[in-house]
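User: I'm new to structure prediction. If I give you an amino acid sequence, what do you actually give back? Let's try with this one:
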Amino acid sequence: MGQTLRDILDAAAHGVFPPPDGRTTVVPQPSPRDAGVMSFTAHSVVFTDEDPEWVYATLRGLDCDPLAATMNPRFLAALLERTGRTTECVDAVLVGAPLPGEPALPLKEIADPGHPRIAYARERRDDVRAWTAAGGVLVTGRGVAGRLEVSVEVDEDARHAGLGRELVTAARQLAGEPLWAQVAPGNARSVRAFQAAGYRPVGAEALLRPR
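Assistant: Good question. You get back a string of structure tokens that encode the predicted 3D arrangement of the chain. For your 211 residues, that looks like this:
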């Protein structure tokens, strides 16, 4: 049996990455929901149930740097058209190892399906759990290939005081396993919060969602 996306992600979470050989690996989708592209340093992984030969032929037809081909808008547009899916943006992907101890931040677990951050997570993840703190919310769930993913939201009047960093640090203490985050690169404040909390950037990702 060949390598799966989960194998690749588990290795990356522990600092072992695909070889930086300029190539692209195509693996099956881990679920009907999850398809997309993940770009590591000089190596890309396309996870789709489409014909791998179509993927390779489409990449060869692009007049661009092969190292950037899988994230080229023309390739992503072709993949979206072929699969009938949609996407939002290319995210930076970070991962944090679990931390021992209990969160210093007072948290209360909730089950509020009406909260926008929780509703957003439930469209994209399984086994969603959420906690609130004064001024913010922390959400975890099983996303791509069953990896544990985190997202946070800080109220407008609670920003610029380090709460985002405290929330994503607390998430590492709640996790018990590597914890993944997808952050829009333009959201520099969020990127800084995750990095300050010890999350390491490992690559970029474009997820293709069913319409």
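You can read the tokens as a compact description of the fold. Here is one thing that stands out. The chain has a mean pLDDT of 93.
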